Structures are given as C-alpha cells and as structure tokens.
C-alpha cells in the first residue's frame, strides 16, 4: 500500500501519475473477442497494468488508473472486473474514463462517435451516468474524477460532471486544444482551477519549440519529465499531472515490450521515489485542499532537451518498437 500524505504535503508539488486504462480493438466494424483486446491493451506484452502495478509497489508510489468501463456495453461486466480488481487490490486509485464508441452497440458492431464532445449535453449526461454505474458495478468506489477519452471534453462535459457530483476533471490538454480537447480554458492552463462547478486538473505541458507538448511517458524524454517536475517545484506549482496508458510500454502491435519506454517508466518511478519528500505522488482523492488559481508556469522550451528526446525517439522507433 502506498504511504499516506503527511500534514505538511500541501506545501509541496504533488505528482499525479495517471494511466488511461482501456480495451483496444483491431477494427471498429469487427470488435472481436474481448480476450484478445484485453491481452493487447491491459497485459500488453508483459508490461501492461500488472507489471506497472509491481513497479509502483516496488517504489511505494501512488497512481490513478482512469478505467473505461464502456466495453461492458458489448461484452458484459466481466472484463471490467478483471481490469479493476488488480488495481484495487494493489491499493491504487481507480477513476472514470470514457470512450463513447462502445456505447449502444447494435448486433455486436460499435456505432458510437469517437469523441464525447461530439454529443450534446443530454447525451453526455446519459453516457457518463451509465459509465459511472458500470464502473461501480465492477466494484469500484464511487469515482470523484473523470477524464474523457482522447481528452475530448467540452464545457457541457463539466456541467454534467458537476451535476453528477464529480469533484475533479482531468481532460484539459492544451497541446490538443481546441480539438479534441475543447474545454473553454486557456491552452496554457496547467494548474488546477475551479471551472463550471468542478476542479479542472489539466495535463501538464512543457514548451516544445513554438508549440507545447504534454507530459506523456511515451512522448517525452526522461530528462524532460524530470526537468518539468523540478521546474514545477521551483515555481511552486501545486500539481504535475503525467499521463500514461495501460498499453504504451509495449510496441504498437502489443507483441513485445518497447525497451525505451520501459526503462523510462522505471527511471521515472525511481526518481519519484528518491524525491518523494519534495514531490509526493498522490491520488485525486488527496486533492481536496489543492491550491487553486496559481499562475501557469510551464517548463520553457530547451533545444538540448528536444534533441535528447529526438534521439530517444529514433532509437525507440527503429529498434525498441521491433522488440530488440
């Protein structure tokens, strides 16, 4: 079980390690057997969720797994229970994720839109309500936080979440704004803010040339991850929000580990363990007293760090993706 926060942790920069956890399918027209999707997306060549839980336990870190329960609309609740049981048994947090394409399958074929914000407020309310019911049916305590699949939330999404009693949303991603991440907040917003009745906890961004890049384990280098966390501490930002996925430590086909991504994840966990006094990992349920309205001050662009990432990406794409 990860350690609880001490009373003075409010003065520290907290780190949210978030893992979007979902079933994948090969084609929308032929979703197939959930066992195949479960193996590729949850177990993911031996470096999926069970492996990630072991590494988190090794370093006594907390993580939040945003689990999408909507495949239960097609397959029943069993695959969702198999996803959440190990996470809860490991003492980690489960919150609500939602990909609407699973909603309302007809004759075994998925018919939904890919993005939640393609729907009006009433339809979003219907789907979020159903997703929460399914997640709780699978054995998860009532969720307090939400992240839309593909970050595809808008202001109506937050209105629904507030109405349903959610305290947090984590869908705002400035590097994907204004689409599919379309909440009406500034693109550069990376600190928690009260908005439309919920606390929005954006995904953390860093400068990337003239653009920005969000902190996703497979999309930034270890040097960028560590620099962003240290920068947040120096700038007294209340939260760093890092994204990963249940399947992203494997190669794109889910047949072998991506050694670059695996080493990066393990090194990040080791770094956070070493620096836990300054950068404690937390759950969303630990954020009730999180400081709001702090100026968003992202890590500036660095040509040297970008070059290091490009070198890692070349190695990842040419070697690690092939399982070498």
Please describe what this structure looks like.
The chain has 324 residues and is of the alpha/beta class. Helices cover 33% and strands 14% of the residues. It contains nine helices and ten strands. The strands form two sheets. Strands 6-7-5-4-3-2-1-10 form an eight-stranded mixed beta sheet. A hairpin with a 2-residue loop joins β6 (193-195) and β7 (198-200). The model is unreliable at 1-10 (pLDDT under 50). This is Polysaccharide deacetylase family protein.
Key attributes of the depicted protein:
324 residues; two-stranded antiparallel sheet; 10 strands
Terminal-residue CA separation: 34 Å
CATH architecture: Alpha-Beta Barrel
Strand % is 5-15%
Can you tell me the CATH superfamily?
Answer: Glycoside hydrolase/deacetylase
Question: Biggest β-sheet: count, sense, barrel?
Answer: 8 strands, mixed
Structural domain count: 1
Overall mean pLDDT: 90
